[in-house]
């Protein structure tokens, strides 16, 4: 909000380098310093615990993007996204340079896919009132996303997360599901859920270029002060090899259900 106030002061100023312009500049600098301090405060310590093994929160074949197996922080330390990962159903429409500039979210197989609880837990945050916007599937769309993402970052985190929910998994561990489909929540705050229970549907709300799931773990319920936590999944890649960990970027995976069932039965997509 401080950055937004500073930008507003500069934009409405029409008297040159006067008091209003200087006030705006001071607010911009202060806001950037505050954001930097927040990001540093949310950087996880070096003595991290062993990753928590969870079930993959989807069914079928999905591609991993922007994950911690490829880069840490995978997104940013801000908003506890240090070890976050994005999952999108594949195959999906290919990106284009010029046309169409955008696609309806229903054009993507991720849209409307059911998302599952990765472990037993309790719902502590649940919101699904934001719209599912068009994709950003062209060069113009990507440029628009950069501007839109900056504007969204000036407000409340919900503008970035879109529709989202937070699960308390116990022992100080919280799971975040972001970019959910509008009006798709199947749970409410206070509900206890079992591993594998449907929670909501994948959507394209918030700071999202195409329908996908943004998933992360953190050590507190408040995304503005918590720190990211590592996690591990059991999955099978396209070569049929089973893994325990987090898939690298652009790896397509199918869940192996073992973390909660005690069995190594491979889920086969219909």
TrEMBL record:
Keywords: Membrane, Transmembrane, Transmembrane helix. CDD domains: M23_peptidase (cd12797). It comes from Streptomyces zagrosensis. InterPro entries: Cell_wall_metabolism_enzyme (IPR050570), Dup_hybrid_motif (IPR011055), M23ase_b-sheet_dom (IPR016047). The keyword Cytoplasm does not apply. This is M23ase beta-sheet core domain-containing protein. Residues 146-218 form the M23ase beta-sheet core domain. One of its GO terms (molecular function) is metalloendopeptidase activity. The chain crosses the membrane at residues 16-34. Coiled coil: none annotated. It comes from the Bacteria. Pfam families: Peptidase_M23. Gene3D superfamilies: Glucose Permease (Domain IIA).
């Amino acid at each position: 909000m401080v950055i937004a106030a500073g930008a507003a002061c500069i934009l409405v100023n029409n008297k040159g380098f006067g008091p209003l312009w200087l006030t705006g500049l001071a607010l911009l600098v202060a806001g950037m310093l505050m954001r930097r301090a927040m990001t540093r405060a949310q950087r996880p310590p070096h003595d991290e615990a062993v990753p928590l093994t969870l079930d993959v929160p989807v069914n079928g074949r999905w591609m991993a993007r922007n994950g911690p197996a490829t880069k840490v922080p995978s997104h940013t330390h801000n908003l506890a996204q240090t070890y976050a990962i994005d999952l999108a159903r594949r195959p999906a429409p290919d990106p284009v340079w010029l046309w169409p500039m955008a696609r309806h979210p229903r054009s993507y197989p991720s849209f409307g896919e059911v998302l599952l609880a990765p472990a037993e837990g309790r719902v502590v945050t649940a919101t699904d009132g934001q719209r599912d916007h068009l994709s950003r599937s062209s060069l113009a769309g990507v440029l628009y996303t950069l501007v839109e993402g900056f504007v969204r970052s000036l407000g409340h985190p919900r503008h970035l997360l879109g529709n989202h929910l937070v699960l308390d998994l116990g022992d100080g561990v919280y799971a975040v599901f972001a970019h959910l489909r509008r009006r798709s929540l199947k749970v409410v705050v206070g509900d206890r859920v079992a591993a594998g229970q449907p929670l909501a549907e994948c959507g394209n709300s918030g700071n999202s270029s195409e329908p996908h799931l943004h998933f992360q773990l953190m050590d507190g319920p408040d995304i503005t002060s918590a720190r990211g936590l590592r996690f591990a999944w059991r999955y099978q890649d396209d070569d049929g090899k089973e893994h325990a960990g987090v898939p690298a970027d652009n790896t397509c995976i199918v869940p192996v259900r073992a973390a909660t069932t005690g069995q190594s039965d491979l889920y086969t997509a219909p």
